[in-house]
Amino acid sequence: MKVHHGMAIPPEGETVELKESVGEWKEIVTTCAAFATAQGGRIYVGVANDGRVLGVQIGKGTMEDLANKIAQNTNPKVVPSISTIGQGTTILTLDVPENPIKPVYAFDKPLRRSGRTNQVLSPTEAAELYFATRGVTWDETTLPEASIHDIDAGKVQNFLRRAQNERQLAVGVDVPIDHALRQMNLIRDGKMTVAAILLFGKDPEWLMVQSSLRCARFKGDNTVHFLDMKVIEGTIIDQVEEAMAFVKRHISMEAEIKDLEREERWEYPLDAVREAITNAVCHRNYADTGNVQVRIFDHGLEVWNPGGLPAGLTVEDLRRNHESRPRNKLIARVFFLIRYIEQFGTGTGRMIEECRKAGIPEPQFESHADSFLVRFEKPVSLAERVAGLKLNERQLKGMQYAEQYGQMTRQKYETVTGASTATAKRDLSALVKSGVLRPCGRGRSIRYELSAQIVSRKTSRKHDEKKGKIAQMSRNMHRK
Q1: How many CB atoms within 10 Å of residue 291?
Q2: Model pLDDT for residues 449-470, shown as the tens digit of each residue
Q3: Strand ranges (E), 335-413
Q4: Helix or strand or coil: residue 358?
Q5: Which residues pair with residue 105 across a beta bridge?
Q6: What whole-number distance in Å separates Cα of residue 180 and Cα of residue 285?
Q7: Cis ω on the peptide bond leading into residue 100 (within 30° of 0)?
Q8: DSSP-assigned states of every residue in 207-231
Q9: Is the pTM of this model over 0.85?
Q10: Burial 357-368 (b: 16+ CB within 10 A, else e)
Q11: CB within 8 A of 117, min separation 6: which ones?
Q12: Handedness of CA 431, 437, 438, 444 (dihedral sign)
């Protein structure tokens, strides 16, 4: 760290920028906007990137001219505190405060400081910051072209009945529709909010084309070939039910007898899938032009929605107790009143628990700047994992026993398959040679376990999508 006239000059970072001269005024303006959007910062002018003090020539009006350029090219205007350090070899310091209203634009671009760089925000990120710093969510904004005539009275009344039964909502079914909506803050200044149209609109897509939900069943484990696709329109309350109906049509259900009673089980726990779909519809970014999507593959089911996690919340947080941070406060409250959500940050935990109870891998969560994904995977059956090895019926039966009980002896192989000792030895030797079984121990105590390769294939993804390309793939699907 360099020291100039008793002042330590730190290296560039989250809150520090070094510039060699006032001639770099455009970069200085950009950094001022980025700092103001983040936590503020200081710019040293007259210092090289490596910390060497070069100094600047301060003429009459130099500081005023720089301050004017910053103010004229930022929105909201940034007014840093500018001062000088030293005599002879002089440097300028610009102290930029954090702006309460965000994002701050420079040259018509929304910017934010990240590490040592100034990042241009996407339209979605800029919109979210704008509403967040004003204490409102996007679903609270109004649609000037919408009116009470765009509201389906029957849907409002159905909701009120459900909310009374589920949460004892103190709004009567017989009250005028506009009164009921005002009670729930769905009308502001006499205008319909985005939430009102999404929840109870007669034709939400007419006003917000991105409000529809897309479901698809693909052949195999990639998005190349569609087997079925449906675009679900209407209110977002109805979309949850229709999406679940689509899922049920395209996933299998098996039945087994336990304690003389028939027990049916879906290949994915329906409560977990419903939670994922409900969260996607409730918490998506409706300012984004994408759609919520449900994608079903041979070995996986994915729920994707526009809009990453709220600032300060990580994927790791989703696996433990965390606070609820709804992106759409009005929608979240209505969903809470009909028990679609609980508003306590417990949704992801319930998904994880349901998958554990069903005996399938825990759901995977992926969050990106403009998207969020929940992925469910079903175990790949043993028969699928060894399909290319041309095993006989005895060998497959023996491997199934080894998978179920963790290990198997030659004697147990003979019992399970009915093979003779000589046949059992040949079969087991072939399985070891092919790499699907591994022997443990020696002599009479030898036992056999599934190889690590076969075990790992149980939960391996066969999707050919690359991590980090979720949003692009989703847009491709949207175009199709």
Answers
A1: 22
A2: 988 888 776 665 443 343 334 3
A3: 364-368, 371-377
A4: helix
A5: 75, 110
A6: 25
A7: no
A8: H-GGG-EEEEEESTTSSSSEEEEEE
A9: no
A10: ebebbbbebbbe
A11: none
A12: negative
pLDDT tens-digit series, residues 320-379 = 888 888 889 999 999 999 999 987 778 899 999 999 888 888 999 999 878 999 999 987
d(CA 436, CA 220): 24
Can you say whether the dihedral through the CA atoms of 307, 313, 318, 324 is positive or negative? negative
Report whether 213 contacts 278 (CB < 8 A). Answer: no
Which of 3.20.20.70, 3.30.565.60, 3.40.640.10, 1.10.287.1700 would CATH assign to domain 211-318+337-380? 3.30.565.60
Domain ranges of the chain: 2-121, 139-209, 211-318+337-380, 382-456
Cα within 13 Å of Cα(335), Cβ side:
31
Considering only CA atoms, give the Rg of the chain. 30
CA distances from 428 to 115, 414, 425, 445 (A): 58, 10, 5, 15
Give residue 259's identity as a one-letter amino acid code.
D
Residue 278 in 3-state DSSP?
helix
Rounded (to 5) percent helix, strand, coil in the chain = 40, 25, 35
| Tokens 């004892």, located at residue | 168
Instruction: Name the CATH topology of 2-121.
Output: 3.30.950
Q: Hey, what CATH class is 382-456 in?
A: mainly alpha
